[in-house]
Specification:
This protein has 13 helices and 17 strands. By secondary structure, the protein is an alpha/beta fold. It has two domains: 159 residues, Aspartate Aminotransferase, domain 1 (Alpha-Beta Complex); 262 residues, Type I PLP-dependent aspartate aminotransferase-like (Major domain) (Aspartate Aminotransferase, domain 2), CATH 3.40.640.10. The strands form four sheets. It has a seven-stranded mixed beta sheet, with helices on both faces. Strands 1-2-3-15 form a four-stranded mixed beta sheet. A four-stranded antiparallel beta sheet has the order 13-14-17-16, covered by helices on one side. Helix 11 runs parallel beside helix 13 and helix 12 packs across helix 13. The model has no long low-confidence stretch (mean pLDDT 97). The structure holds 4'-deoxy-4'-aminopyridoxal-5'-phosphate. 4'-deoxy-4'-aminopyridoxal-5'-phosphate binds next to helix 4.
Length: 437
């Protein structure tokens, strides 16, 4: 049997990767890592070094959580089939999952990735409304299929992209740090963009299928929506006959601490919600949650069958994840640790002019770096340098946002206050060293 832990050197793997994998795959860090094991909030390389994982929002309840592993193993030993047979797991899971949503969100479609979830959400919206046109937030990423590249400015407007198709309509990111509106009513002001798009479409005799937006913007740079944004956006979209889709692939399952679902921070109830990444703690499991009315429109005679979606093993794993979130009080834990973390980062901001903004809720945090707090000139190179230096200190971070100048923090929720303190003290040293250069 192949010894996957020790047999091949990093250099050998990089060479073979270059030959056998598509070249548009990136690799993290200038000094790439070979990670062979994970536990809780730690990743281990081939020599046994531990790295503190501040990046992986997929292994939500901790890498290789024993309860999740055992649930998957136990079900694999008994049966794995598909949703064309009755099985307790899928129904128990659908009941538990939908009980965490407000009414009338109580119908589930199980799929295998965030992209599949968003693709299906688009199909639901388009079938329900009979319209094609979709409104998206600038810089958003919703997935890797063609239908989603079409609604992901993060991809179609960036390197290699071919721009938006005529059915995609972009609105500005409701960014109250860097954007055009910074006042208390920024939410309502940004939402006017939607009204503008709808008016324009009406002028062309067209309606709108829907609006899709993350409940906190991940690839956009860890941006939390200004108060009232979704409320006003949803009102405009619904008045025009469209449906409102909340993408919770990055931010769902209690990560934001105050709520199980980040859309709840905005006081709205979407028509469709998409889930992914953390749902199976690393096992490919995702879902679309919608209303009975939209699900009924979709049941138009064409069967929806998904070979792997909702299989008994996936559902056993999904159930175990929900169980752990509840038993270990991880939503509350995320809020406590996140608040402590944010406070420490804000103290660091007072000492270092490079930190322009610290924002977040729970364990979904962004640190925006700027060269000048007046002009907000992005400190892109510095952000990259910091994550490389932190990696050498065995702390894993990443950058994102339109200028790649936002350090993202979204660790497994078992992350502790001690871990937060460790990140802050190391960041303080790295920032001080950077100032001396
Ligand atoms: N939506 C959002 C907000 C995402 O961040 C991602 C993945 N980065 C996706 C959808 C697509 O998910 P997947 O990679 O599982 O297809």
């Amino acid at each position: 049997m192949l010894d996957t832990v020790t047999t091949r050197s990093k250099e050998d793997l990089l060479r073979a990767r270059d030959k056998h994998l598509g070249k548009n795959l990136s690799i993290s860090y200038k000094d790439p890592l070979k990670i062979v094991r994970g536990k809780g909030q730690y990743l281990y390389d081939e020599t046994g070094n531990a790295f503190l994982d501040c990046v992986n929002n997929v292994c939500h309840v901790g890498h290789c959580h024993p309860k999740v592993v055992t649930a998957g193993q136990a079900q694999m030993e008994i049966l794995n089939t598909n949703t064309r047979y009755l099985h307790d797991n899928i129904i128990n899971y659908a009941e538990w999952l939908t009980s965490t949503f407000p009414d009338p969100l109580n119908v589930c479609f199980f799929v295998n990735s965030g992209s599949e979830a968003n693709d299906l959400a688009l199909r639901l919206a388009r079938t329900h409304t009979g319209q094609q046109d979709t409104i998206v937030i600038d810089h958003a990423y919703h997935g890797h299929t063609q239908s989603l590249i079409d609604i992901s400015p993060y991809k179609h407007d960036a390197r290699g992209g071919q721009g938006a198709p005529p059915t995609t309509h972009k609105v500005r990111m409701p960014d109250s740090y860097r954007g055009d509106y910074k006042t208390e009513n920024a939410g309502a002001l940004y939402a006017r963009d939607i009204a503008g798009v709808i008016e324009n479409l009406k002028g062309q005799g067209k309606g709108v299928a829907g609006f899709i937006g993350e409940s906190a913007l991940g690839c956009g740079g860890q941006i939390f929506l200004p108060e009232g944004y979704f409320e006003t956006v949803y009102a405009h979209v619904r008045a025009a006959g469209g449906v409102c889709i909340a993408d919770e692939v990055q931010v769902g399952f209690g990560r934001v601490g105050t709520h199980m679902w980040a859309f709840e921070m905005q006081g709205v109830v979407p028509d469709i919600v998409t889930l992914g990444k953390p749902m199976g703690n690393g096992h490919p499991l995702a879902a679309v949650i919608t209303t009975p009315e939209i699900a009924a429109s979709f049941a138009n005679g064409m069967e929806y069958f998904n070979t792997f979606g909702g299989n008994p093993v996936s559902c056993a794993i999904g159930l175990a994840v929900l169980e752990v979130i509840q038993e270990e009080g991880l939503q509350k834990h995320a809020l406590e640790v996140g608040s402590y973390f944010l406070e420490g980062l804000r103290q660091l901001q007072e000492k270092h002019a490079l930190i322009g903004d610290v924002r977040g809720s729970g364990l979904f945090i962004g640190i925006e770096l700027v060269k000048d707090r007046g002009t907000l000139e992005p400190a892109t190179a510095e952000a990259n340098q910091i994550i490389q230096e932190m990696r050498q200190r065995h702390i894993l971070l990443s950058t994102d946002g339109p200028y790649e100048n936002v350090i993202k923090i979204k660790p497994p929720l078992v992350f502790s206050k001690e871990n937060a303190a460790q990140v802050i003290s190391n960041l303080a040293k790295v920032l001080s060293d950077l100032m001396k250069m």
